[in-house]
Design a protein that fits this description.
The protein is mostly beta strands. It has a domain of 123 residues: YVTN repeat-like/Quinoprotein amine dehydrogenase (Methylamine Dehydrogenase, Chain H, 7 Propeller), CATH 2.130.10.10. The protein has no helices and 26 strands. It has a four-stranded antiparallel beta sheet with strand order 4-5-6-7, with no helix packed on it. β20 and β21 form a beta hairpin. The radius of gyration is 19 Å and the shape is globular.
Amino acid sequence: MSDLVMGDKGAAGDSSLVHLMVYDLKQQEVVSKVSKSLTYLNECDCEVSPDGKRLARIEGLNILIWDAATAELLHRIDTIKPNDSGKLQYLEFAEPDRLVSFHGEETVRVYDVQTGRKLNEFQLSLSLKGLGGHPGRKMRASPGGRFLATLHICNEGPQKRVLRLHMYDLKSGKHVGNLPLAENLSHLTVRDLVFSDDGEEVATLLYQQRERDFVIASWSVKEGIQSGFCGPFPAISTRPLTKERHLVWLKDKSGWVHSGHYLVNRKTGEQQQIGNSDQGIRHDAQIIGPNTMLQFWESEPRRTTENEMVPEVVQW
């Protein structure tokens, strides 16, 4: 990974100004910045393409696509359709040339990044309304853009509700199968859904509201089985912000980092703290190499004229 996109509010007293900044991680500098006058910058609203060349974000019912290096606006895609009341809620690059958007409770659309043309539209077999949280935390495109994974709670009998991972082919829009969670869990909120780098497995971080703790479950897409379950872990306060991932796979798939500073060993199920959880407000955490994580912190946001983002590399 050579580029990272971050969202940052403007100076104190000018909360309507938002900066979308692209950092070069090797040179450790900002390579481009898009400044927009917005009422807020919501989670899951902006994305950087896998090759780092394009930046996209949601603005109302429009999708805006920029050149990441020059900050030039390339396309403004109007997603409004006749008799369409579905809110544009989620955006993700399936690959450098394809962009996935989610509308209302069931509609998925795929756009060509180069032309802005709509390539496909299909309906999910079940609504994403359940399980709480932002829809962007209950769906994810696989690396390479072949599949779209979604999480649903399904009623399968009297007092029997089963969490299932559903898979869709992004090019055809066809539903290709689903995998259940073996454990009997209830009153869940999804904090994240992520694919491994090779696209062969997908994992979710779930918050159990009654027990007030977290669990991590994973499935093998390749073998069609549940491949892991870890937890429960004590609840930790997290603050979802732009592009933040609550759950990140380790490069060798030996475990995950969740909530920015907790490492979970997949084999033993043990959890250990990494980094400094008391340093400030965490804005992003991403694995950038073997046993290496990059984090951005906000330093003393109430005492400075601008919110300063402080990078930190954590190793274990």
